[in-house]
Amino acid sequence: MEFKDLDPILHSQLRLAIVSLLISVKEAEFTFIKEKTNATAGNLSVQLNKLKEVEYVEITKQFKYNYPQTLCKITRKGIDAFEQYVNALQSYMRPG
Amino acid sequence: MNQQLNERESLALIESMINKAKNNFSESGTLFLVWGFVILICSVLHFVTTCFFDYENGGYVWGLTWLATIFQIFYLRKKVRKQKVKSYSDDIIKYIWITFFVVMVIMVFILIWQKSYISIIPAILVLYGIPTLFTGLLFKFRPLVIGGICCWLLALACTFTHWHFQLLYIGAAGIAAWIIPGIYLRKKFIKENQQYGR
Known about the structure:
By secondary structure, chain A is α+β, with helices and mostly antiparallel strands. Chain A has four helices and three strands.
């Protein structure tokens, strides 16, 4: 049985949580991801930047009704990486 | 929350996050209830004033829909302000309802221009059935699917009914496609709020 390597970027709890959230939506605010992952703002910011560096996530900073807003969106590369990661996980889980 | 996971934990985390994103989409039903009651009140008042009091200007009661429109604008602005996440289905629903609104305005204009007043109510009901059914199918929400089909059946019934009674059919559509789905949505919203502590 052939085992596929798991993407080290996604194989971390918070980064996987972020990508799993973003895969289900078009875009989400930083505060939404923070609320759903129960992460601290600092840690979330660091992990989001790592995902941005590998171009899995797009981050847009803008103003909404005079308040700063950080929007996060998964990229095509991020979707492909997530799909490969899930396929790899499934190959590990398959019996035999 | 930076630790490495085993395969089972990874899959469980993915599932839980997807569920958290999914559970975020809930509609309070407020707009459905407001529009449902406004449509019901207008149709009954128009029917009563026309049939029992021979009042020719009973149609002015539909001016109440402007109040509902103003409420909707403020309500949606407030909702957008609070919105932290945007889903793909939000966009689809938004565009289909905008399309419905534009088509309805054009259709009503054409029918008034051609003096086909008797066709206005069935045309509105046929058109309203489309986004209602589509929204119900997209969100797998049966009351809206049934509401959409009811609109089409009521439109067909209009063909065989005197114009005065068509007014009551609009009210019936208000109950089937707005009020009943609105009550279900409200109950679901309250239940989810308690469950997820929103």
